[in-house]
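Q: What residues go here?
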C-alpha cells in the first residue's frame, strides 16, 4: 500500500507540475503611455462578410464605456482600433489601398495602432468564428479596458493634500519667472521651462506633485503651483465627498464643449481639486496649490 501511495504521488506530480520554462506567462506588460493618455479613437475594420459586425459593435461598446471620444478622421484621433481577420502587418500608413489578403473568418483580431506612426501598440484576438463577431469585439474592448483600469495610478486624498504642506517649492513664492529660473537648485526644488510655461520639479516632493506648473499673479509673480492630472492617474471623487467638511463645492459646464466640471476648494482657499466628467464618471483633472 505504501508503495502504491508513493507511485500515485509521482504520477500526479508529473501530471500537474509545469516546468517554469514552459509555463505560460500570464503577466501583462504595461500599456504604452500613448494608450493610457489617449482621448479619442477612430474605429477601422478590414471586415468582409461576417466581420462587418465588428465596426458597429465596437462603436456602440466604446460609447457605453465613455472613456474615448469617437473620431471620424483617423488623422485627428489619438488611436486607431483596427478590427480584422488577419494579423496586422504594420502597414496601416504605407499600404496601397485596402488589405487584399483572403480572410477565413475564424477569429476577430483587434489591434490598437498609433495613427502617426502605424505602430501596433496592443493587440489580441478571439477565435470565435463569424457567428460570434459582436461578442468577440465587445470582449476585446473589455480586455483593453481592464488592462487600462489596472494601470491607472489611484491617488488618495491624503496624498494629494500632502502637496499643500510640502516646503520644497516655498522658495519660489513671489518670484518672477526670470528669478525662479536663475535661482540655484538647492536640492529641494528646481525651475525649468520658459517664462510662459514654468515647471517646478523636486524628487523631495510628495509623489503627486513632483512635477507641477507655476501659477502666477496678474503681476506675473509665482503665487502657487498646479498639477495637471494625466489620464493614467485618478482620485476617487467619493474620497473627497467623504471629507466634505474640509471643502466648499462648485460646479459648472464648459461653454465650448459642454463638459461638466466639479471643484472642491479647501475652506482656506489654498487647495482646489477639479474633476471633469468623462462619460458616466468624474475623473481628476487638476489640483492647484496657493501659497
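A:
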Amino acid at each position: 500500500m505504501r508503495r502504491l501511495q508513493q507511485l500515485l504521488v509521482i504520477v500526479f506530480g508529473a501530471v500537474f507540475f509545469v516546468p517554469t520554462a514552459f509555463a505560460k506567462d500570464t503577466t501583462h506588460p504595461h500599456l504604452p503611455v500613448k494608450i493610457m493618455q489617449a482621448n479619442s479613437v477612430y474605429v477601422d475594420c478590414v471586415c468582409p462578410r461576417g466581420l462587418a459586425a465588428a465596426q458597429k459593435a465596437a462603436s456602440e461598446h466604446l460609447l457605453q464605456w465613455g472613456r474615448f471620444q469617437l473620431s471620424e478622421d483617423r488623422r485627428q484621433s489619438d488611436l486607431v482600433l483596427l478590427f480584422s481577420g488577419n494579423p496586422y502587418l504594420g502597414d496601416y500608413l504605407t499600404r496601397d489601398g485596402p488589405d487584399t489578403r483572403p480572410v477565413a473568418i475564424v477569429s476577430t483580431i483587434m489591434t490598437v495602432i498609433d495613427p502617426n506612426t502605424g505602430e501596433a501598440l496592443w493587440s489580441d484576438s478571439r477565435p470565435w468564428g463569424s457567428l460570434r463577431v459582436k461578442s468577440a469585439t465587445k470582449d476585446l474592448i473589455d480586455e483593453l479596458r481592464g488592462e487600462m483600469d489596472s494601470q491607472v495610478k489611484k491617488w488618495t486624498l491624503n496624498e494629494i493634500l500632502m502637496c499643500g504642506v510640502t516646503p520644497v517649492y516655498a522658495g519660489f513664492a513671489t518670484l518672477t519667472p526670470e528669478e525662479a529660473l536663475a535661482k540655484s537648485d538647492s536640492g529641494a526644488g528646481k525651475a525649468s521651462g520658459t517664462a510662459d510655461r514654468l515647471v517646478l520639479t523636486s524628487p523631495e516632493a510628495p509623489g503627486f506633485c513632483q512635477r507641477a506648473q507655476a501659477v502666477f499673479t496678474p503681476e506675473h509673480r509665482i503665487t502657487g503651483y498646479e498639477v495637471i492630472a494625466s489620464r493614467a492617474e485618478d482620485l476617487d471623487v467619493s474620497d473627497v465627498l467623504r471629507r466634505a467638511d474640509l471643502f466648499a463645492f462648485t460646479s459648472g459646464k464648459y461653454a465650448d464643449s459642454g463638459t461638466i466640471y466639479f471643484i472642491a476648494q479647501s475652506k482656506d482657499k489654498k487647495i482646489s481639486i477639479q474633476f471633469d466628467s468623462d462619460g458616466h464618471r468624474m475623473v481628476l483633472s487638476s489640483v492647484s496649490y496657493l501659497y
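A: Context that may help when evaluating the design: The CA atoms of residues 214 and 223 lie 8 Å apart. The longest strand covers residues 281-290.
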